[in-house]
Amino acid sequence: MKETLESKIRSVAVNIRRIRESKKYTQDYMAVKLAISQNAYSKIELGYTKITVERLFQIAQILDVDPVDLISLNDDTLLHVVNEI
């Protein structure tokens, strides 16, 4: 079954949240680094806000991961990346 665009966007948001939590970063911390409000950042993690490629790269840089990891991780590879952190 093919993933819908909406489910892919949600998957990216979940990957961002899980990696952020594994690093023990708060949403406030991420928001400050991105120069946005905590509420705006929360919407990214909830998948309400569609992020640009630029924003994806910014988030990846803050989390110190490859941007591709944020897009392509599934549960198995996400656990591996989180364990490396």
UniProtKB/TrEMBL annotation:
Coiled coil, from the record: none
Keyword DNA-binding: yes
Swiss-Prot/TrEMBL keywords: DNA-binding
UniProt-listed InterPro entries: Cro/C1-type_HTH, Lambda_DNA-bd_dom_sf
Pfam families cross-referenced by the UniProt entry: HTH_3
Domain HTH cro/C1-type: 16-70
Keyword Electron transport tagged: no
UniProt superkingdom: Bacteria
Name by which UniProt lists this protein: Helix-turn-helix transcriptional regulator
Species: Mucilaginibacter boryungensis
